[in-house]
Amino acid sequence: MIKLADNSIMLIGPDGILSAFESDSLQSKIIRSFMLAGVRDIWLAEDITLAVEYALEQDSREDKIFAVSEINSTVIKILEDSGFPEAAESYRRGNPSTEITLNAEIATVAGLINRHLGLNGKSLDTLVSKVVQAAVKLNISVASPALYIELAKHFKSEFMPADRLPLPQVIISKSQKAASPWVVSLKDLTDKMSSQSRSLVHYKIISLSGVSRLFPAVKVIFRISGLVEMHNMESPLTEMTMVPHFHSIAQALNESISATQAIFRAKGESLPEKGLPVIMTVPDMSSFAQNNLEASWPQASADCREMLSYLEKMVNTQVFKIKMA
């Protein structure tokens, strides 16, 4: 399934309040840490953000709730392991990886569990009792809200298995830290492309970027209006009119996927276990809908997403995320 900009990943803050995970906000924080540390490779902020989001999305827990401090700790670890200790320290100063603590009182713990696990009545009372008793045995009088939630999930595991936050697997050796984080360059990709696919790049119908070891993925910007102009299609168009022309886009993506996989293997680099994901941005979808489909935006966004699902099926790997603007 396409991972769209809308998502169900939630964060629990130091005060126990839930908020939606926003990748753009996290990316801005990482960019700021790079700039304050004098690091020029700020474009790597996108890969780090995607690595975190991908790990959260792949987690098997049903509620998809993660602690803000855990996210910050993950980012700091990635920055340190990737050879950017100054940026890691800058991020740590602006985004603490520790949380405020709450007393292990029955009323406080009950409120947290009720809010985050949706339990009431006897089930809630039983679980709260177990969590508070565990805190006493562990000599814990105050702790972060996330700890209480995790303890509750542990004791609730007989009904629903508990999960832990998965850290993105960014493993970089000391020798690699001094080298470029890029494994595949844009030239590497275009050199392996057919002439038809290279023409799509030349006319900027698609734009690709290099692939880093921080988050191995094929990232593409697809300008759908450019595809309309290339084939001199007359408006108004329909979804079914566009679908046959998606084959050339899919071919270019599949060629990029194959080239990236081959280069990673040749260099002894690790690839994601579930395959190389694709991240696609369609920056002109709203203007395409209005000018070529003669539809209103954002009312037509659902139909446009459905249209892109045909392109997704033509790609030989997981389309993790599609952004439309």
- Which strand order spans the largest sheet, edge to edge or round the barrel? 7-9-10-11
Show unreliable segments.
Answer: 1-6, 160-165, 171-178
- The helix/strand class is alpha/beta
Rg:
23 Å
Report the portion of residues in β strands: 5-15%
Could you give the distance between the termini? 20 Å
Kindly describe this structure.
With 325 residues, this protein is of the alpha/beta class. It folds into 2 domains: 173 residues, no CATH class; 145 residues, no CATH class. Helix content is 50%, strand content 11%. It contains 15 helices and 11 strands. The strands form 4 sheets. Strands 7-9-10-11 form a 4-stranded mixed β-sheet. Strands 2-1-3 form a 3-stranded mixed β-sheet. Strand 1 and strand 2 form a beta hairpin. Helix 1 crosses helix 4 and helix 5 crosses helix 7. The radius of gyration is 23 Å and the shape is globular. The protein starts with 9 loop residues before the first strand and ends with a strand. The relative contact order is 0.12. The N terminus is likely disordered.
What descriptive keywords fit this protein?
325 residues, alpha/beta, 2 domains, four-stranded mixed β-sheet, 15 helices, 11 strands, disordered N terminus
